[in-house]
């Protein structure tokens, strides 16, 4: 895009990933490139943390493929992850702050402006039946 044109306020990227631990690193690299290209570098650190937690859960706790969707609408960045497990995500209530596991969704809850999930039947999911977990970051940068 020529520098004189302004990037659109609404954009979306979807990255399909196999059930492979290396996918987490690839998703982080992709996220950094997308946020830098669209003028959201100030959200990179927290967005990377949240995306890592969501993708890691999908890779560790499901057996099939997954996908990450990055969508910006004006000043809100939504990070969403599909996986093929229809079971609700479990927010651990007793994970200690220095625990190695069990804190992912608590981090998503605490570090995002909004978060949630929805169960998806086969015809509504890009990876087959399962769920879509999302979180929003609202940019305060001018």
Relative helix content: 25-40%
Order of SSEs, N→C? EHHEEHEE
How many distinct beta strands?
5
Q: Structural class from helices and strands? A: alpha+beta
Strand proportion: 25-35%
User: Which descriptor suits the 3D outline?
Assistant: globular
* Secondary structure tally, helices: 3
SSE arrangement:
Blueprint: E1 10-17, H1 22-37, H2 44-61, E2 66-73, E3 76-83, H3 104-111, E4 114-120, E5 130-138
Antiparallel strand pairs: 1-2, 2-3, 3-5, 4-5
Helix pairs in contact: 1-2, 2-3
Protein architecture, described:
- It is a single chain.
- The chain is α+β, with helices and mostly antiparallel strands.
- The protein has 3 helices and 5 strands; from the N terminus they run βααββαββ.
- Helices cover 30% and strands 28% of the residues.
- It has a 5-stranded antiparallel β-sheet with strand order 1-2-3-5-4, covered by helices on one side.
- Strand 2 (66-73) and strand 3 (76-83) form a beta hairpin.
- It is globular and about 40 Å long.
- The two termini are 22 Å apart.
């Amino acid at each position: 895009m020529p520098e004189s044109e302004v990037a659109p306020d609404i954009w979306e990227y979807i990255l399909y990933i196999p059930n492979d631990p290396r996918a987490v690193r690839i998703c982080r690299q992709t996220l950094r490139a997308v946020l830098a290209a669209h003028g959201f570098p100030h959200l990179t650190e927290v967005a990377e943390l949240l995306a890592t937690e969501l993708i890691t859960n999908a890779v560790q706790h499901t057996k099939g493929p997954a996908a990450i969707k990055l969508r910006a609408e004006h000043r809100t960045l939504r990070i969403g992850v599909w996986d093929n497990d229809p079971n609700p995500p479990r927010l651990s209530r007793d994970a200690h702050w220095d625990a190695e596991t069990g804190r992912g969704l608590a981090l998503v809850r605490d570090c995002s402006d909004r978060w949630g999930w929805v169960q998806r039947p086969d015809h509504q999911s890009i990876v087959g039946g399962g769920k879509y977990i999302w979180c929003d970051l609202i940019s305060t940068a001018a």
